[in-house]
């Protein structure tokens, strides 16, 4: 009996980096599930690429639950790769921007990962798309101390992300030690999450691999026309996360090499 090709799921994939990641995975021989919030655009992109489509809004817990149920029903064999790519980069900086950005970029990743975790096959890869913009030195010394990857729990990390939003909404984020960037702060959370997941799953008998990746500044609708990189190079940097050493303690990479954060 011929073995089935491995199965990958990509979030936020109707355009830009997510779409290109789907194309490159397809060309590597994966079966691919392209997910997107906009069903019409998502179906069109999946049709053009010759891959499967499932609707997903990472900011809606019920949508994540529906996706998990559909993957379980359609693919009981499970997933080999999940690329958590969906994200936003909004103009301006205020309480609403902070809330939307953190909910999509950090909590959206957390919802998808925790929902799909039971469906991952042995040796599966979780690739969280982060950014080098999310540097820990943007935080005050006190906040950096709270971001102790040896002892921090996922619940405590989530509480920090909620605290950032609350501090921005209250107009006290500067005095509380936060930077004036919602995107950067949300990506600090994503990179930290990859480290915590890798630590927490170290004893999982499935030997799952978790890594955060930086695609660089890419010329996409979200990245803008002045980006330094093509979408092909950015997507390749994301997928280099499939090939990094599983046992390395560092869990943030760009172009397959450890990146600073």
TrEMBL record:
Belongs to the short-chain dehydrogenases/reductases (SDR) family. Keywords: NADP, Oxidoreductase. The lineage of its organism: Bacteria, Pseudomonadati, Myxococcota, Polyangia, Nannocystales. Pfam families: adh_short (PF00106). The keyword Oxidoreductase applies. This is SDR family NAD(P)-dependent oxidoreductase.
């Amino acid at each position: 009996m011929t073995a089935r090709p491995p199965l990958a799921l990509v979030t936020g994939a109707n355009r830009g980096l997510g779409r290109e990641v789907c194309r490159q995975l397809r060309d590597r021989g994966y079966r691919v599930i392209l997910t997107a919030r906009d069903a019409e655009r998502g179906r069109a992109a999946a049709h053009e690429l010759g891959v499967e489509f499932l609707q997903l809004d990472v900011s809606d817990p019920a949508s994540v639950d529906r996706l998990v149920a559909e993957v379980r029903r359609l693919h009981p064999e499970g997933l080999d790769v999940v690329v958590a790519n969906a994200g936003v980069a909004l103009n301006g900086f205020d309480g609403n921007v902070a809330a939307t950005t953190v909910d999509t970029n950090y909590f959206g990743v957390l919802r998808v990962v925790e929902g799909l975790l039971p469906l991952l096959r042995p040796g599966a890869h979780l690739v969280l798309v982060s950014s080098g913009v999310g540097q820990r030195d943007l935080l005050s010394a006190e906040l950096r101390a709270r971001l102790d990857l040896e002892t921090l729990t996922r619940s405590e990390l989530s509480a920090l992300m909620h605290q950032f939003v609350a501090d921005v909404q209250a107009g006290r984020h500067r005095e509380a030690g936060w930077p004036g960037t919602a995107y950067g702060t949300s990506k600090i959370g994503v990179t930290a999450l990859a480290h915590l997941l890798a630590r927490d799953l170290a004893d999982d008998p499935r030997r799952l691999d978790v890594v955060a990746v930086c695609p660089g500044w890419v010329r996409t609708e979200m990245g803008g026309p002045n980006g330094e990189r093509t979408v092909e190079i950015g997507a390749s940097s994301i997928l280099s996360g499939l090939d990094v050493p599983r046992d390395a303690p560092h869990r943030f990479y760009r172009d397959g090499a450890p990146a600073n954060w």
